[in-house]
Design goal:
The protein has 389 residues and is α/β, with parallel strands linked by helices. It has helices spanning 3-15, 19-29, 35-49, 52-63, 73-85, 89-102, 107-119, 123-132, 139-151, 155-163, 174-190, 201-209, 236-253, 266-279; strands at residues 211-213, 257-262, 283-285, 297-301, 309-312, 323-325.
Length: 389
């Protein structure tokens, strides 16, 4: 399809009020369309969605005379920033990349471009962009370098970058630095027993989350699934097998659970009773006021997945609880997944094993602290979260 045809299709979708299809179209064809036209389309979509700040930023790019908006680093940065703020990171990449070309010494533009690439799972490209602008990098950029290098599977680069990442002056960023330190420590352990290549789902799941993945699917392994399941449902036999694998993991790790904590819903009560019987443990009601009060390990419910349980330590200076999961799946639509299993990104890099929970697709802006409570998703970067992904 020619550029003219792609553009006509985009305008037809906007005229029909089909914002979702328009955004999908821009995701696949936006790089070939004139930047000012993309901004006009984004403005129209934003007005339909009542995103006034995004509409204003897009209009500023689109309405500047003689296409000058597409060559104004300040306007492009504001447009990209608003795109990220509304979950349209793929749409933000192109204007932010051009803004960085126009203002190569801007740490603010560099940070936002890396955030957009990271959210779009272009981790290797994010690393390359940071390497090309090393003189501009501040502490946040150096942290982004380590994190994206890990996510790209470039562990040697990540380790080297971590060696140049000092303790942050702002104590709010200490958990972020500790998180990548723990990832690298787990990678050193995993590399001794597993290849950590682009098909090593279990290895990368451990490196990125600290979790043990119990089962791997044989279906479509070499076709991109690499051990994940698609459209799989629970069964009595499957639950029993998962509990036996969990028992094996606990025995091998030397963990001694104290009890199985039950959520009140029926599925959790049933599976929890089965877990208690299989592991010869007492079953107790889950007390949210004491999630980590016991001195030994406990099988705890996963609040995001009723009927599922995870083995986690009580403790807590350690921010990454031990976690056992039976399987990872790819059955949910891209933007609605509750877990993001490890997979190659669009640039061929290894993807994340378990993405942030809902509500944490956010990022730091220049000078913004992880705990700051700001506009929409800017309250906390997902990679600075203290808990498990």
């Amino acid at each position: 399809m020619s550029v003219t045809e792609e553009l006509e299709k985009a305008w037809d979708l906007l005229a029909a009020g089909d914002v979702r299809s328009l955004l999908r179209h821009l995701h696949s064809a936006g790089d070939t369309l004139p930047p000012d036209e993309v901004a006009r389309l984004a403005e129209g979509a934003a007005r339909l969605a009542e995103f006034d700040d995004l509409a204003q930023a897009a209009a500023a790019v689109a309405e500047a005379g003689d296409h000058s908006g597409a060559e104004d680093a300040r306007l492009l940065h504001a447009f990209g920033y608003a795109c990220i703020d509304h979950g349209l990171s793929d749409l933000a990449v192109r204007p932010l990349a051009r803004a960085l070309e126009l203002a190569p010494d801007s740490a603010a533009v560099l940070s936002e471009l890396v955030v957009a690439l990271e959210h779009d799972r272009q981790y290797a490209r994010a690393v390359a962009v940071l390497e090309a602008h090393e003189p501009v990098m501040g502490w946040l950029n150096r942290f982004q370098y380590v994190y994206n290098a890990i996510m790209a599977g470039a562990l040697d680069k990540a380790a080297e970058g971590f060696g140049r990442l000092p303790e942050p002056e702002d104590a709010a960023w200490i958990p972020a630095r500790q998180k990548v330190r723990r990832m690298l420590a787990r990678a050193d352990i995993a590399r001794a027993v597993t290849p950590l290549n682009h098909q090593d789902l279990r290895g990368w799941h451990y490196v990125l989350t600290g979790g043990v993945l119990e089962s791997l699917s044989p279906y479509g392994f070499d076709a991109g699934m690499t051990g994940r399941w698609a459209y799989v449902g629970d069964s009595i036999d499957g639950c029993a097998a998962a509990l036996q694998r969990l028992k094996l993991i606990l025995e091998a790790s030397g963990a001694v659970p104290e009890a199985v904590a039950l959520l009140p819903d029926r599925s959790s009560q049933i599976l929890g009773a089965a877990a208690a019987a299989a592991l010869s443990l007492p079953a107790v009601d889950f007390d949210p006021g004491k999630p980590a009060a016991q001195p030994r390990r406990r099988l705890r419910p996963d609040p995001d997945r009723p009927g599922r349980r995870r083995s986690s330590p009580p403790a807590c200076p350690r921010p990454d609880p031990a976690r056992a999961g039976n399987l990872l799946d790819r059955s949910a639509p891209r933007h609605r997944r509750r877990q993001r299993p490890a997979r190659p990104g669009r640039d061929g890099a290894v993807g994340r094993a378990a993405g942030p929970p809902r509500g944490r697709r956010c990022r730091p802006g220049p000078g913004r602290r992880p705990a700051d409570r700001g506009h929409r998703r800017r309250d906390r970067p997902h990679h600075a979260a203290a808990g498990p992904w």
